[in-house]
């Protein structure tokens, strides 16, 4: 169990660096794809830190989905945003045209390969494909950090498509104020009930340590600084 989890984390980081290296070696790759974002990537600061080049950007409303804080994060009750299925619902965000090589890099930032945190969902707009991320295992009762929420609401104020009452409701979202070790399992311990109960506390702690390791290394890279946008 321990070796497999550590291998997944190692492969995730190695895959991320490989994706960065391909981006560096092929800076003029013209293949592009639309990416719909509704979370922290609404912030130019985050895009700059991740060296994601934007060729086109416009406000977009994803239908039959709802923004919910159901993506379990690094701490107890910690959440990231997810565009969960919801007939008649709407998710407000931005559509970015980015390089396919940057889309591959974004997959690693979103924990798709090996960590399996999100599903990558494809759709089409006017016959052109786009994608977005959705929590693979939605969890209710979670809260975003104030910093994360601010990335979103700051962007909303500059987006004509977002209703004022929606912005106010989002700004009133309860945020995480204490940062305790994660008590949920599911990312690395998939079925805790299949283990003897006497082992549950140790398994919960093990999962928390794995998630903490991911948080520490999340934006760590030897190569990203070499990517020119």
UniProtKB/TrEMBL annotation:
It comes from uncultured Thiotrichaceae bacterium. InterPro entries: GGCT-like (IPR013024), GGCT-like_sf (IPR036568). It comes from the Bacteria. This is Gamma-glutamylcyclotransferase.
């Amino acid at each position: 169990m321990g070796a497999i989890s550590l291998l997944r984390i190692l492969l995730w980081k190695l895959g991320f660096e490989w994706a960065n290296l391909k981006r560096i070696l092929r800076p003029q790759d013209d293949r592009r794809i639309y990416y719909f974002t509704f979370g922290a990537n609404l912030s130019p600061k985050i895009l700059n830190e991740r060296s994601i080049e934007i060729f086109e950007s416009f406000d977009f409303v994803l239908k039959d989905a709802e923004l919910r804080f159901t993506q379990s994060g690094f701490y107890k009750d910690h959440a990231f945003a997810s565009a969960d299925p919801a007939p008649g619902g709407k998710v407000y965000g931005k559509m970015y045209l980015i390089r396919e090589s940057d889309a591959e890099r974004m997959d690693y930032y979103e924990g798709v390969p090996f960590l399996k945190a999100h599903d990558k969902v494809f759709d089409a707009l006017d016959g052109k494909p786009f994608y977005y991320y959705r929590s693979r295992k939605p969890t209710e009762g979670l809260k975003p950090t104030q910093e994360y929420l601010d990335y979103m609401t700051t962007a909303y104020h500059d987006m004509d498509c977002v209703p004022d009452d929606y912005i106010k409701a989002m700004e009133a979202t309860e945020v995480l104020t204490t940062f305790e070790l994660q008590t949920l399992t599911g990312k690395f311990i998939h079925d805790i009930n299949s283990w003897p109960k006497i082992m549950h506390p140790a398994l919960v702690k093990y999962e928390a340590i794995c998630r903490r390791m991911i948080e520490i290394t999340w934006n760590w890279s030897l190569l990203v600084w070499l990517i020119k946008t």
